[in-house]
Amino acid sequence: MIEILNADELSRARDTGALVADILHELKRRTVVGTNLLSIDQWAKEMILEAGAKSCYVDYAPSFGRGPFGHYICTAVNDAVLHGMPHDYALADGDLLTLDLAVALRGIAADAAISFTVGDAAAAEDAAMITATERALHAGIAAAQSGARIGDISHVIGTVLTAAGYQINLEFGGHGIGSTMHQDPHISNSGRPSRGYKLRPGLMLALEPWVMADTDRLVTDADGWTLRSATGSRTAHTEHTIAITTTGAEILTLPTHVRGEMATRLAAESG
């Protein structure tokens, strides 16, 4: 199913996107050496419920997982990259953590992910990998113009990641999003330009470049959910939910303070 959202639905999507971004921002702020992954999950639960929203993960039971997932956020550490199930683990200095959060508010979902190093022992290789996914994401967003095609997004994401020296797994990627978290179209992190579904205003997409340091192969944990690099190498994952508009792509999953700063800057420039 591919949904095209109307103006009211897009307005609600902005609220959902801001909530997702604000929660991720706060969780990153709270996360320090010694923080337990189960504490992060509990914090996420509290903030989601306080906002009157609903987790997209708790009851999530797709064919590729051993569902239902049963937690409020994905917490992937070091060699884990996708669907990281929170468990009793205290983060160590230098751990590379990915937080992936999807929430529905007033009937519209939004999905985002951030990767960052915990503590002070940051490795240059980790920073470079995170930066590569962020650059690929912003390239994909720039390519997401009305009239372009899904393949155009996939192509630029893949071009950035490959140029940075990473192999690309095509099993999991971005996706459509709207009244439910996962919808068509699928957006691979590499592809051919001018192919696939034609983008149109009102379409919402979650773009999510992710890489593993030295492989493109995944293995699944005994929990049936957590996906890790087959070699045990480190990983990174960055994601935004965007809406296609007549003038380009609008990033919905920006924290409230960032949106405020952007609005202030634009007002000053127009004045």
Automatic annotation (TrEMBL):
This entry's Gene Ontology molecular function terms read: initiator methionyl aminopeptidase activity; metal ion binding; metalloaminopeptidase activity
- In this chain, a divalent metal cation 2 is annotated as bound at 111, 175, 208, 239
This enzyme's EC code(s): 3.4.11.18
Q: Which reaction does it catalyse?
A: Release of N-terminal amino acids, preferentially methionine, from peptides and arylamides
Name what cofactor the protein needs. Answer: Co(2+); Zn(2+); Mn(2+); Fe(2+)
Q: Which residues bind a divalent metal cation 1?
A: 100, 111, 239
Q: Give the matching Pfam families.
A: Peptidase_M24 (PF00557)
Cofactor comment: Binds 2 divalent metal cations per subunit. Has a high-affinity and a low affinity metal-binding site. The true nature of the physiological cofactor is under debate. The enzyme is active with cobalt, zinc, manganese or divalent iron ions. Most likely, methionine aminopeptidases function as mononuclear Fe(2+)-metalloproteases under physiological conditions, and the catalytically relevant metal-binding site has been assigned to the histidine-containing high-affinity site.
Describe the family membership recorded for this protein in Swiss-Prot or TrEMBL. Answer: Belongs to the peptidase M24A family. Methionine aminopeptidase type 1 subfamily.
Q: Name the PANTHER family on file.
A: METHIONINE AMINOPEPTIDASE
Q: What does this protein do?
A: Removes the N-terminal methionine from nascent proteins. The N-terminal methionine is often cleaved when the second residue in the primary sequence is small and uncharged (Met-Ala-, Cys, Gly, Pro, Ser, Thr, or Val). Requires deformylation of the N(alpha)-formylated initiator methionine before it can be hydrolyzed.
What's the protein called, per UniProt?
A: Methionine aminopeptidase
